Amino acid sequence: MQTIRGFRDILPEHISLWQRVEQEAFSLFESFGFKEIRIPVLEKTDLFARSIGETTDIVEKEMYTFSDRKGDLVTLRPEATASICRSYIQHKMYATDPVRKFYMTGPMFRRERPQKGRYRQFYQIDAEVFGIESAYIDSELIFLLNELFKRLGLTGLTAHINSLGCPECRPAFQRALLDFLGKRKQVLCENCTRRIQKNPLRILDCKVDSCQKALEGAPATIDHLCQACDDHFTIVRTTLERQGVAFMVDKSLVRGLDYYTRTAWEIKTTTLGAQGAVAGGGRYDGLVEELGGPATPAIGFAIGFDRLVEVMEQLKKNGQDPPLDLFIVALGNAAMAKAYHWSCDLNLAGFRTGMDSRGKSMKSLMKRADKLNASHVLIAGENELKENQLILRNMDTKDQTMIAIDNLVPTLMTLLTK
Ligand code: HAM
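Structure tokens for the assembled complex are given below, as produced in the milestone run.
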């Protein structure tokens, strides 16, 4: 007997990475006020059709839907957002406190063509926030993803962000898009031709080569935003910039689910071939109301757990250990004794910190910092200790600054998370 195509076992020898990701993710989410929620694997089909959208690939072609013994149509969940909204409404969570932050992990099911990074049963780590309209929560979620990936030592990821507008600015955009598509009808695939009237935004997400070509120069939502959406997106971008989160604005990003409004994003990698999105998310301010609850702004993301683990395995194979944030070069016994405590405190504060207590020379310690891929080095020699100061060296730019030993952790928090 063999597993069904697209389904797989995750064997004990691979599980430690999965556990490490869960631990890092959940502890980060908890420290930002998220609570775990567990939801069923099976829901009424209608829930997904109404939330994800009747004309999306997921609902049209990929759901595992069947009628149960009484003839009710049920579906193995293809994602978690719809179910979490259902739960929020069903348990009237909005009545006691409309502001809620949830996270969950578990299997999702989509009948896609299996390939590397794409399975029919795959796992997501999902986070959702209800009841907050402010753009700061959009930045917080992208910041959280960035922080998690940093803690996991992932490199080479890029955040692509876009704004999809709201019911206020969509009609003008749709008119511009329909106008553009009208002139290219003949070259669009069958699916897109069918979707023109029903759901033209979906066409922008079509993966067929001829459609992609025809869509070059298509209007972008971001060029048709109303003032409120524009202001919202400006806050998201400037906040991320201030927090030092690298991102690029990607006008062509539309996401594959219909419920999105305003900010939408994907975190992409180049190490998994075609399956480049390691996480995706966005705002869905209309969904709770659409499903029968009170008007409630909401936003969230899902990480593709299988893909995340594959990127981590890839990095390991390439011999790249997760980089260190800091390496402490401690010269002499007095410095070493102090460095030990700094290193513990810094690790607890979330910096990946290393040191070498074998009494090596400055030159060989700097070599070691390089080998460990440290982004910064803290140098503590006799002179520095006397002056109650340390040298902080940026290993990329080679810039050096003196920093006070007192309040070392808060100082580094400010300097290195900028
Ligand atoms: P999604 O973009 O459909 O969004 O999925 C999120 C992530 O799940 C993808 O970026 C990818 O890493 C992973 N994924 C999707 N399909 C597969 C597959 N067949 N095999 C392996 N990994 C896959 C959502 O699901 C939304 N619910 C995210 C969200 C939450 N938006 C707001 N809140």
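Residues 79-81, 110, 112, 117-119, 122, 124, 126, 128, 256-257, 277-282, 300-302, 304, 306-307 surround histidyl-adenosine monophosphate (CB under 6 Å). Residues 407 and 413 are 10 Å apart (CA to CA). Further analysis is deferred to the final report.
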